[in-house]
Design goal:
The chain is an alpha+beta fold. Helix content is 42%, strand content 19%. It contains ten helices and 14 strands. The strands form three sheets. The protein has a seven-stranded antiparallel beta sheet with strand order 2-6-7-1-5-4-3. Strands 10-9-8-11-12 form a five-stranded mixed beta sheet. Mean pLDDT is 89; it is low at 385-405.
Length: 405
């Protein structure tokens, strides 16, 4: 089985290298935005979509043009990779996996990627990395890199620069050490509730720092924009945001690692987080209802990181030889696991479940996790629809495809 894995390290560049990285990231952002503007103008004129080859031809003209000669200073391959990222963004939009591509803003997700491994040199014993037009860069070597180097992504976060080194290696098909199955119901009051009645308490990383963050945001709003004091205040806010993100990422990694190591079959709800956290403001013609309450719920949902939790759980379960199944989430907390009665009256409060038909009583989140596991069993056993019980064709997920390969 081939395993793609990324190793992320903090870079320690000198002043000249840091200036070059800022310029390269700005050049990639400029190329991305210019290509997006070209695609929009082309669409408004009624012409066909410009493919990657056409955009590369335009990029050659921009690099040798009189208006943007500074693009020559940036390496060519990261600029072409920015065009590939735009093409992927359009593909995700056409397949309804993401919103329409938007213009990138300076200081938000500055990054660039070297896709050609032949141009990259890695010297692990001396803790250094060679990248075109940057030279040898020192990095904080926290762990060994395994596998054949594929590409390197350089990014900035919280005033620091990082290198994400992706590798590929062949590993033996793992056999699961655990033999148990678990159903998981995610929520706001409880981050993850298991079908065995255990649960994980939410971290609420953003909520813990919300007042402190708002305090420094108010202070920054009183500064003169782009002044030195404004930049210092902005750097402090970025540091708080980076701390929130790092704490959330650490929490999710620890939770998913524990679950994947202790269970061979993991069943979760197939939640559409983007739809659940959509704003309810409405428009000028039709105003939304309970906007403030919905805004607080959206903030709590996004603070949990459900999407990242599912992504990490998917590949970690596969790495440990297990299987993860996503089942339909409809009425999981309103269905009685004892008699099968479905009614909204079964869930009287956020936490209490009491079946109006047979009198079965339990915590509502535990009931949801039990039903998720039961639907996973049905889906795994006979490919039935977990909602209606009718037979259906089930396409293999990425995790199951890796396991059965």
């Amino acid at each position: 089985m081939q395993r793609l894995q990324a190793y992320k390290y903090e870079l320690m560049p000198d002043g000249e290298q840091e200036r070059d990285m800022r310029r390269f990231a700005g050049s990639c952002r400029f190329v991305y935005n210019k290509a997006l503007a070209m695609q929009k103008e082309n669409h408004e004129a009624g012409n066909k979509f410009i493919g990657f080859a056409g955009l590369c031809k335009a990029l050659t003209g921009w690099r040798h043009g009189v208006e943007t000669p500074w693009l020559k200073d940036a390496p060519c391959h990261p600029l072409q990779q920015a065009l590939k990222d735009l093409e992927k963004a359009y593909k995700n939009f056409f397949e309804k996996r993401a919103d329409f591509p938007s213009f990138k803003r300076k200081g938000s997700g500055d990054s660039f990627r070297y896709p050609d491994p032949k141009q990259i040199k890695l010297d692990q014993p001396n803790n250094r990395l060679f990248l075109p037009k940057l030279g040898w860069l020192r990095y904080r070597n926290s762990r060994d890199i395994l596998g054949e180097l594929r590409n390197v992504t350089v990014s900035q976060s919280g005033g620091k620069w990082f290198a994400s080194i992706q590798t590929q290696r062949e590993v033996e098909q793992p056999l699961p050490t655990a033999t148990t199955a678990i159903g998981i119901d995610v929520g706001v009051a409880r981050f993850a509730t298991m079908s065995d009645a255990s649960f994980i308490t939410p971290l609420n990383s953003f909520k813990k720092h919300q007042q402190r963050l708002a305090h420094y945001q108010r202070r920054m709003s009183h500064k003169v924009k782009f002044s030195n004091n404004w930049k210092k205040a902005k750097a402090r806010i970025q540091k708080i945001h980076a701390g929130i993100a790092n704490a959330r990422k650490d929490f999710l990694h620890k939770s998913t690692t524990t679950i994947s190591q202790n269970h061979a079959l993991v069943c979760i709800e197939d939640l559409q987080v983007r739809n659940m956290s959509r704003s309810s403001k409405g428009n000028s013609e039709q105003h939304g209802k309970m906007v403030r309450q919905k805004s607080g719920l959206n903030r709590a949902i996004l603070d949990q990181g459900w999407g990242e939790f599912r992504r990490q759980l998917g590949y970690k379960v596969a790495w440990n030889g297990g299987m993860m199944l996503a089942v339909p989430p409809h009425h999981t907390s309103q269905t009685c696991p004892a008699c099968g009665n479905v009614s909204k009256d079964n869930r009287q409060t956020q936490a209490k479940f009491l079946c109006v038909d047979c009198g079965y009583e339990n915590h509502a989140d535990v009931v949801g996790a039990i039903n998720v596991l039961e639907r996973g069993y049905r889906l795994l056993a006979c490919g039935e629809s977990a909602q209606s019980g009718r037979s259906m064709k089930q396409e293999p997920t990425e995790a199951t495809a890796q396991i059965t390969a």
